[in-house]
Write a structure and sequence with these properties.
Oligomer: single chain
Distance between the termini: 31 Å
Strand order of the largest sheet: 2-1-6-5-7
Radius of gyration: 22 Å
Bound molecules: S-adenosyl-L-homocysteine
Number of helices: 7
Largest sheet: 5 strands, parallel
Structural class: alpha/beta
Number of strands: 9
CATH architecture of the largest domain: 3-Layer(aba) Sandwich
Shape: elongated
Amino acid sequence: MRIDIITIHPELLKSPFEHSILKRAIEKKVVEVNLIDLRDYTTYKHNQVDDYAFGGGAGMVLMIEPIANCLKALKEKNTYDEIIYTSPDGELLQQSTCNYFSTLKNIIVLCGHYKGVDERVREHFVTKEISIGDYVLSGGELAAAVLCDGIIRLLPGVLNDETSALTDSFQDDLLAPPVYTRPAEYNGWKVPDILTSGHTANIEKWRHEKSLERTKERRPELYNKYGKK
Ligand code: SAH
């Protein structure tokens, strides 16, 4: 998979891809992530990429031309399945969205800044708009990092244990059960006996019950959705 991220702060996005699981995925060439500096595509003086909003008001807006130039240059070299704009008014990012994106070959993620991007970019170039939650960040970079992490860890060969991603919360509309590791007793607090019993079938049953319990308690709407399947 190839992910091209367009940003005015490529430095800000370096670190998430230089550690742990994402780093390994890139080293194994399961995914290629390119950080593209929008300022390299402006023809304005002083690398200008933003301007005042027509009609006035506080906050700058990213201009259409540098974005259009950048997209044109990228599209000359690759074809893209989706051009994603990170935006608080986009579709709320869900596990199912990550699952979908993880099946694609090439995607572009466009990070907004300031007041956002000129609306015409959204109308004419963007194919998906994704929000990571009902709050406003100062830029799309952290949202892009969240999105990419959610996608990349699903790609085949990235997680060591192939079943690992499948047993995470949300994959089956249930939250994950509690997990424990050594020591089996700490400060008098014991791990549930069943988990140290070695009885795989009972452990699986226990985990499923805990998943149901936890989902019912914490996310009743998910629990109902699960019940209807
Ligand atoms: N004026 C806009 C907010 C702009 S925030 C509004 O009120 O909707 C600046 C940039 O940060 C956005 O263009 C977007 O790329 C990014 N951003 C902010 N919050 C986000 C969120 N919850 N999810 C995804 N991207 C977000």
